[in-house]
Amino acid sequence: MLTFIIDTSLGILATWAFYRTAIVLLFPETHSEINIPELLRLLVRGLLATPGPSVLPLGQLSYTLLENTRKTGRLRGGYFVLHTAKGLWSDEKGTSCILEIQNNWRKIEGEWYALVKEPFVGFRTTEDGEHVVALIVRHRSDWDAIPSTSDLIPEGFRVVQGWREIGREELKEKGNVLYGQELYWGAFDLYKQALHRPADSVPSDLIQRNCAQAALKLSLRDTAIQDATAAFSANPSDPKNSLKLAECHYAARNYVAAETNLQNLVALDPLNVKGKLLLEKCQQRIAEANGEYDWVKIRRVLKTRPNSHLDVADYTGPVEVKVGKFGRGLYTTKDVKVGDLLLVSKALQFVYLSDGDLENSEKLKNMKLDCILEVAERLHNEKSLQNGFFELWRGKESAEPRNIDDTYALDTEMIRDIYDVNCFTPSYHDINTFLEEPPYGEGLWLLPSFMNHACWANTRRSFLGDVMILRAAADIPSGSELFTPYVSLYTDLLSRQTHLQDRYGFTCTCAYCTIQTEEPLQVRKDRASILESYATLLPSLNPQSQQEALKECILEVENTYTLPPSDFPRLELLNVYWTLALTYHQDQPLEGIAVSMNLLSALGFEFDDDGSTRRVGYMDIHAMPTMSQLCISWAALGKMQRAEKWGENAKAVCEIIMGEGTRFEEIYKGWLEAAPKG
């Protein structure tokens, strides 16, 4: 007999299992035709799959009381309205229950009402021996906090709370107290109650403005805009209403609408300092939306606050999403040149990690879970994001999303599946890291996630904090698909293809993979053997012998290639070339220049005698320091015109690899000044 035991308490899948179990499967040895790994995978996936969210419109569900629940399992066709005070939940009859909201990112404290749709029903015994109903909610769209003024709350249930017996002024003041205690939902609810009281000395627009401010603190940006719009409509002559509406539009990244409100504000109140400052920020965001970024200022923010979530606007260049050979992808809408800015995209959500966390599997797992739950919360609060998110690839086996009343049912497991195959984890090679320590983290960027994979891609992505910058890494004709690598080209062919097949379900057929696949396996083994033998030999040699050994290594490895570097970049040789160049540049700059030029040729670059670029090669990170070293060496020889030309080349490559060139400009002059003159 063959025995297989799977412990689902291990690994990332356990994050999504709400129970622990062990599965023991027995198969007769004679059943060799059974695909056991595939069968086990399907069985485990079925057991771990979380039952989906409620997919019925609220109008088709029936209001339910706790006393009417008689059996365990999913409550089909019903919903509860519950109230909590001091952590105790009850319905309108005063029947107590336990409410467990799983996968919950937003924490609401204080007294509030909850709408709970089709929860899982169980029964538990409390410490006092009381037998109570336990309701479990697993998906973000299956519950919501509702204000005590909602029509969903039975009339008697509201009266018990006594909100109609308090005047508008007192409700507002109580709301202000809760706001000061950072109990924003309680404050929001009291402000809503105040609006339902007869008008007194407190004008409605003031309370609506307070509602908008509390909603902003709760990240309810759509609600905030509605309340601020109501305040402005009620009293458009009050500058505070114009400012609040502008702040709400700004928070929702509606910069043009915010600018319009602020221009009206400045016309009403020319001395309004807050309005003028926000107007200036709006105009900066609008300029960014046109591709004009102050990279120095952005980098300064990250330097003073390293884990910042940057306040910048998205820029969408000459690109569009359309369906092609590989499904939905990102395509150019006009001819673009190498180095052109294609996208600047702020993450939908991004979680920072410290350097030490990278080796901590528990922290990495929690980071991913936090980011997924934050995505679910944003999708719930900002309905305008849902279409773009659910158009992303959902993975190999994910189900179709369900739409209810023009909004999506937010299935936590589906959100996880979409996130998992579309998230980006910036690496050292991706980040604007020149002489700076890179941040670490993981996040989701909507528009860039439509890009399909190629190991040898025609774009280069980089990151500044939670902002992704995408530039063309080659000249790209109009209508061409844009690609980005899902795995490093430095990884060997088998590892790349295995990763892509396991995680994404496809085999890469890009130019680089095709060449490597067609190349005899023995050639790749011989190449690796040569590199390994010289790596072992070098530490035992003196400097001069090391130079000769490095030259011999380059020659032997070059002889294993049959295609030119323009078709097959010599990535395996880059570190060898770089090491050899460094041994020459200080004392023998002309020799160093020759080796550096060979390194760039190994990437497929071609240059005229004056340093002008004739052909752009593979945009590897080695290209930037190599061109910078050429700049320094020519300056050391007193050839300042050539030094400046190579400085220009280095800056152009820097902009592509790092996303922007201001960091390079800051150190470029210092290099020239520090270079010894020959």
Automatic annotation (TrEMBL):
Taxonomy, superkingdom: Eukaryota
Cite the Pfam families for this sequence: SET (PF00856)
Q: Where is the SET domain?
A: 308-487
Full protein name: SET domain-containing protein
